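Changelog-adjacent note: as of this version, every example in the card shows the full chain rather than a window. The one below runs 362 residues end to end.
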Amino acid sequence: MIYTKGITVSEASLIMSLGLVARGLSTLFVFPYFSEKFSSKTLLHVMSIGTMISLLSYIPATSFTDLLLATLLLHLFYPALMPALDTVAGTLVQHKQLADYGKSRSYGSIGFVVAGMVLTFFTGAWGDEVILWAMLLGALLFVILGFVHSPAILSKKPKVDPTKKQGMMSLLRIKNFGLVLVIVILLQAAHASYYSYGYIYLQEIHAPKYLIGLILNIGVLAEIIFFAVADKKFKRFSVGSLLALAALGSTIRWILVFAFPNVIVFSIAQVLHACSFAMGHYAFMKYLINHLTPAQIPKAQGLYSAFALSWSTAVFTLFGGFLYEIEPRYAFIGMIICTIPSMWLALQYRKVEGRYLDSSVA
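Full-length structure tokens:
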């Protein structure tokens, strides 16, 4: 937007901020609403076509208003693809047509790393405008995949009992759903400073520029390894135990970054992304698969995407930015304001979960 379209940094920041707001609204309301009207396959196909049309609208856009409208349109469709795909995975696991959620999720992380490396090469050779064309190519491939044969269950519209309320608030009546949601919101919010200021912090502690991309990808590689082994190594772990371990790992991660401001420790701490992000996400999916019906999962994914992956991150990015201006390291240690409460809540849920399991066995 800045270098290709010629708008100012403040204008681009405003556009992206409004895009995050639209993203939260899309995943919270639009995606769950249409998931009741259409099958998972149809919904994915519509979202991918909408994403491609949105990206195409950037090409003729030149003014601030045009770019804002294109961004709002994009954030109506594109962000919904992630909860839609996770909903598909959860449905397939429930119907025994997908054995390992973790392993399938690892492919997405691998794709992220590979795409990032390839894109870096092309942007270095032809400039930042290549990003738009790469996204268009990805959206086109997604649209084409929509015509490929898929399991029959994905073509069925979720059955909704008209005699029962199916609104968002109905999820809060599901045993411990609200508690688990709060825990994962706090866990994901704790990444705000890392996502927003991790790159410039590495410059601050004099990391070689050619290594910054590699250092940041250590976290993604740790995430890939976790998802690849999660279903075998952590199958017997309860959701509460996984959430407590995720919070502990996240707390240790940000303490290390704060206490030892050097490249080597930051790189080592990146391995804990397997706990802070991947384990927390895996635990939430495990809870959904075990306790929610296929019709309820899209709503739960909408809440998770809006509050945990969008709005909470936006709020704590502002908090982290305030701390970063005082002292860069404070932005990271400040994130334990999320991780410590999440760990305490996870331990409380683990106790409740244990009593519930004991009563079920009895």
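Structural remarks: The radius of gyration is 21 Å.
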